[in-house]
Amino acid sequence: MKMPNFAGTWKMKSSENFDELLKALGVNAMLRKVANAAASKPHVEIRQNGEQFYIKTSTTVRTTEINFHVGQEFNEETVDGRKCKSLPIWETENKIYCKQTLLDPDGPKTYWTRELRGDELILTFGADDVVCTRIYVRE
């Protein structure tokens, strides 16, 4: 399979359903306001070596970094900071689907996907049946 190239720096072009996602995760109104403001202009840096990924997401409030190899479980946190085990797999040749399993089983079923579509990076976060879609373009 030809490896898609996710590497580069990305800036967000559009976002939908982020507030609904936070609601589905049970984030209270005050924290949602802060999160919405903080996450309005995320900057994403992706380094890729074959199936090994490093993704750094920076906002005005916090920076998160994840390292993973597609097909291998790793530890990360959900959007609202819950610890989880994540398993990324290739859903299509250009799309990674990552199922998250909360360490504390009390909470919604969460996952994320990252997909290259032309010159855009499509990121989705899911919590139960709510899906947040964020579209990024290369800087």
Describe the structure.
By secondary structure, the chain is mainly beta. 12% of the residues lie in helices and 55% in strands. The protein contains two helices and ten strands, in the order βααβββββββββ. Strands 4-3-2-1-10-9-8-7-6-5 form a ten-stranded antiparallel beta sheet. A hairpin with a 4-residue loop joins β3 (52-58) and β4. The protein is globular, with a radius of gyration of 14 Å. The mean pLDDT is 93.
Q: How much strand?
A: over 45%
User: What structural class should be given to the helix and strand makeup?
Assistant: mainly beta
Give the quaternary arrangement of the chains: single chain
The pLDDT mean sits at 93
Globally, the shape reads globular
First CA to last CA: what distance?
27 Å
List keywords for this structure.
2 helices; 12% helix; mainly beta; 139 residues; ten-stranded antiparallel β-sheet
